[in-house]
From TrEMBL, chain B:
Protein name (Swiss-Prot/TrEMBL): Cytochrome c1
Matching Gene3D superfamilies: Cytochrome c-like domain, Cytochrome c1, transmembrane anchor, C-terminal
Signal sequence residues: 1-25
Annotated Gene Ontology cellular component terms: membrane
Main location: membrane
GO molecular function, one term: metal ion binding
Length: 422, 258
C-alpha cells in the first residue's frame, strides 16, 4: 500500500498536490484481486460500461429530443430518420437499458450464489440495491419519454400505484403528475429526472467501487484472501479478462442493436400516446415483469388492507427484502459451492423469478404455459409466495440445518486442487 | 473457456426466450402466417422495384384515407427515385403553405422537402368520413403491430365476404379474419387490378398487398439496409477483436494457476 514513486516530473508534480494518480494506481492497477474469479465476476464492470454508454448516448439524444406531449413522439422519429446515425444512437440507448438490466441481474444472482452480501460486504451489497432501485426509476421514466401508447399507459398505471396509500395516496399522485392526469407536466418532470438519475447512479457506483476496494472482492470459494499468493494485481490480469468479456458482451449487444432492435420492446410504443384509447394489455418492459407479477398476484385483502395497497407493498418489499438478507442467511459459509442443499434452493429461486417474469407478461386469466386449469394469476401467487419464502424461510433454516462441505484452507489451495483434478 | 461459452449461451438463450414473451403478450387475434420478405435475415435488403410498386398502391389506394406523416417526398430517394422523379411526384400534390405577406394561407405545388399531406384536415374530419373510425397513420404501421409485416399482409388479404354464421356484424363494418375482434371499419381496400403496375407485374390482390407491405416496412424502417450493412461490419470487427483479446488474455494468464 506504499505510495508509488513517480519518475515522470509532471506526474510527480501533480500527484504531490492531488494524489489522484496514486489513487488510480492503487485502485485500478495494483488492487489485489483473488486469482480464482470466474467469468461471473465480469458483469460488474460490464454494467459500468453500459452505464457510461447510456449516459453518452442519452446526452446525444437529448440534443434532438423535445419533451412536450405534442412533439415528443415526432422528435424521436426525427432522431430515427433525419439525425445522422440517430437510429444507431437511439437503438443503442433503447437496447442498452435491457443490457444494463441483464448485466445487473446476473451480477445480483452471482452475489446471491456466492454469498457476496455477507459480512464484511453488507454495505457494498446495500449500495448495489440502491443502484438497482435508482436504475428501475430511471428506466421507467425513460420509457415514458417517447410518448407512445405504452409510455403513456405504463406511466398511468405505475404512478397510480401510489394512490393505494391511505390518506396521502391521491394528493401524492396529483403531486407526482403535476396535474390531474399524466400529461405535459408529467412528461417534463420525468425528462428532468431521467437526466438527473444516471448521475446519481454514477455517484452510487463510485461508492460501490469504494466499498468493494476496502472489503475486497469475494470469489468462488467465498474464502477471504489470506496470503499474497491468493491474489494478483488487477492490472493486467483482470483488465484483460474484463476486456475479453466486454468483447463477447458487445457482440451480444450489437446483435440486438443492428439485427433485432425492436425485439425487446413493445410494438404499441410505436403508436403515439392517446389518453382516449387504452391498449388491451398494458405490459411493462421485460425487466419489470417479475415485479409486475408480484404486484398483480395480490388480489385479496388481509385484515382490511385493500389488495391494491398490499400488491404495491409486496412489490416494493420484493426488493427491500434484499437489504436484510445478510442477516436472514444464517449460514457461516459464503459460497453455494460448499452448500449442497442451499445450492438447489438457489436454482429453484432463479427458476421462480423466471416464472414470475412469464406471469407478468401474460394476462391474469390466461393459462400458465397453456396448462388447462392453471391460471397465470394462481401461478403468479404461488411464485410470489415462494419468492418471499426463499428469503424468509429457506435462507434462515437451510443455513442452520445444512451440513456444508469442508472449505479449502485458502484460495491458492483450492486452485491447486482443481488444477490437479483437471 | 468451455464453461464460459456454456454460460454465455445459456444466458443469451434464457434472455431471448424470456423477453420474447413480453412482446407477444398483447393481442388475441389469430397468429398471421409468416411470410418470406426480402428484408428478412442478416443479409436481407429491400427490392426497389417492389417498393415502387408498393408506393403506387399507397398513393392510389391507401392515401385516400391514411396519412404518411413521417415521410417527406425527398425520402423517396430511398426507394430508388431520382431527383427529377421526386420533384415530379411532389408537384402532383397541393400543399397548403403560408401565411404570405398579406396574411393569407395559400396552396402551391409540393416540393421535395414537403411531407406527404394528410387526407383529412384533422382527426374529427377523418372520423366523420369513416363512420367514426380514424384511419391510422401508416408511417410506422409495420413496427406498431406484433409481427407487423405479416400482420398487415394477413389483414389486407384476410377479408371474408360474409361473416361466419352467428357473428353479429355491425352496419358499415367488414369481417376480417386477422383483425382483433374480426370487426373492422376499413372496407376491403385491395382487390385484383386495383392498381395497374407499370412494370408488368401481375396485379393480383395478393401482389398488391405484398408490395404495399414492403413499402410500409420501408416507411417504418428506412434505415434497415444501412443498419444491417453497418451491423455486419461491426460484428465481424468485434469477433476479430474479441479473438485477439482472448489470445492476449491467455498469454497474460499463462503462468497464473487459477
Amino acid at each position: 500500500m506504499s505510495a508509488p514513486q513517480w519518475n515522470n516530473k509532471v506526474v510527480k508534480w501533480v500527484d504531490d498536490r492531488l494524489p489522484v494518480i496514486s489513487m488510480l494506481h492503487h485502485s485500478a492497477y495494483e488492487y489485489p484481486t483473488p486469482k480464482n474469479l470466474s467469468y461471473m465476476w465480469n458483469f460488474g464492470s460490464l454494467a459500468g460500461f453500459v452505464l457510461v454508454t447510456m449516459i453518452l448516448t442519452g446526452i446525444f439524444l437529448v440534443m434532438n429530443y423535445t419533451p412536450h406531449t405534442d412533439m415528443a413522439f415526432e422528435s424521436v422519429e426525427r432522431i430515427m430518420r433525419d439525425v445522422n446515425h440517430g437510429w444507431l444512437i437511439r437503438y443503442i440507448h433503447m437496447n442498452g437499458a435491457s443490457m444494463f438490466f441483464i448485466c445487473v441481474f446476473i451480477h445480483i444472482f452471482r452475489g446471491l450464489y456466492y454469498g457476496s452480501y455477507k459480512a464484511p460486504r453488507e454495505v457494498l451489497w446495500w449500495i448495489g440495491i440502491l443502484i438497482l432501485l435508482a436504475m428501475m426509476a430511471t428506466a421507467f421514466m425513460g420509457y415514458v419519454l417517447p410518448w407512445g401508447q405504452m409510455s403513456f399507459w405504463g406511466a398511468t398505471v405505475i404512478t397510480n400505484l401510489f394512490s393505494a396509500f391511505p390518506i396521502i395516496g391521491d394528493p401524492l399522485v396529483t403531486w407526482l403528475w403535476g396535474g390531474f392526469s399524466v400529461d405535459n407536466p408529467t412528461l417534463n418532470r420525468f425528462f428532468s429526472l431521467h437526466y438527473l438519475m444516471p448521475f446519481v447512479i454514477l455517484g452510487l457506483v463510485v461508492l460501490h467501487v469504494w466499498a468493494l476496494h476496502s472489503v475486497r472482492s469475494n470469489n468462488p470459494t467465498g474464502v477471504e484472501i489470506k496470503t499474497p499468493q491468493d491474489s494478483i494485481p488487477f492490472h493486467p490480469y483482470y483488465t484483460i479478462k474484463d476486456l475479453f468479456g466486454l468483447g463477447v458482451f458487445l457482440i451480444f449487444f450489437c446483435a440486438f442493436v443492428f439485427f433485432a432492435p425492436d425485439y425487446l420492446g413493445h410494438p404499441d410504443n410505436y403508436i403515439p400516446a392517446n389518453p382516449l384509447v387504452t391498449p388491451p394489455h398494458i405490459v411493462p418492459e421485460w425487466y419489470f415483469l417479475p415485479f409486475y407479477a408480484i404486484l398483480r398476484s395480490i388480489d385479496f385483502t388481509i385484515l382490511g388492507i385493500p389488495a391494491k395497497l398490499l400488491g404495491v407493498l409486496a412489490m416494493f418489499a420484493s426488493i427491500v427484502i434484499l437489504f436484510v438478507i445478510p442477516w436472514l442467511d444464517t449460514s457461516k459459509v459464503r459460497s453455494s459451492k460448499f452448500r449442497p442443499v442451499y445450492k438447489w434452493f438457489f436454482w429453484l429461486f432463479v427458476i421462480d423469478t423466471f416464472i414470475l417474469g412469464y406471469c407478468g407478461a401474460k394476462a391474469p386469466d390466461d393459462y400458465f404455459m397453456g396448462i388447462p386449469g392453471l391460471k397465470v394469476i394462481v401461478m403468479g401467487q404461488l411464485s410470489t409466495l415462494y419468492y418471499f419464502a426463499h428469503f424468509l424461510v429457506v435462507m434462515p433454516l437451510v443455513g442452520k440445518l445444512e451440513r456444508t462441505k469442508p472449505l479449502p484452507a485458502s484460495i491458492s489451495e483450492s486452485v491447486l486442487k482443481e488444477g490437479a483434478n483437471a | 473457456m468451455r464453461k464460459f461459452a456454456l454460460t454465455a449461451i445459456a444466458a443469451a438463450f434464457a434472455v431471448t426466450a424470456f423477453t420474447g414473451n413480453a412482446a407477444k403478450a398483447a393481442g388475441d387475434a389469430p397468429v398471421p402466417p409468416s411470410q418470406d420478405w426480402s428484408w428478412k435475415g442478416l443479409f436481407g435488403t429491400y427490392d426497389r422495384a417492389q417498393l415502387q410498386r408498393g408506393f403506387q398502391v399507397y398513393k392510389n389506394v391507401c392515401a385516400g384515407c391514411h396519412s404518411l406523416r413521417f415521410i417527406a417526398f425527398r425520402n423517396l430517394e430511398g426507394i430508388g427515385f431520382n431527383e427529377d422523379q421526386i420533384k415530379a411526384i411532389a408537384a402532383e400534390y397541393d400543399i397548403e403553405d403560408g401565411p404570405n405577406d398579406d396574411g393569407d394561407m395559400f396552396t402551391r405545388p409540393g416540393k421535395p422537402s414537403d411531407y406527404f399531406p394528410s387526407p383529412f384536415p384533422n382527426e374529427k374530419a377523418a372520423a366523420a368520413s369513416n363512420g367514426g373510425a380514424i384511419p391510422p397513420d401508416l408511417s410506422l404501421m409495420t413496427k406498431a403491430r406484433v409481427a407487423g409485416p405479416d400482420y398487415v399482409f394477413a389483414l389486407l388479404t384476410g377479408y371474408e365476404e360474409e361473416a361466419p354464421e352467428g357473428f353479429d356484424l355491425s352496419d358499415g363494418k367488414s369481417y376480417n379474419h386477422y383483425f382483433p375482434g374480426h370487426q373492422i371499419s376499413m372496407a376491403p381496400p385491395l382487390y385484383d387490378e386495383a392498381v395497374e403496375y407499370t412494370d408488368g407485374t401481375p396485379a393480383t390482390l395478393e401482389q398488391h398487398a405484398r408490395d404495399v407491405v414492403a413499402f410500409l416496412n420501408w416507411t417504418a424502417q428506412p434505415e434497415l439496409e444501412a443498419r444491417k450493412e453497418l451491423g455486419l461490419k461491426v460484428i465481424l470487427f468485434l469477433i476479430v477483436l474479441t479473438a485477439m483479446l482472448y489470445a492476449v488474455k491467455r498469454k497474460i494468464w499463462r503462468d497464473i494457476e487459477h
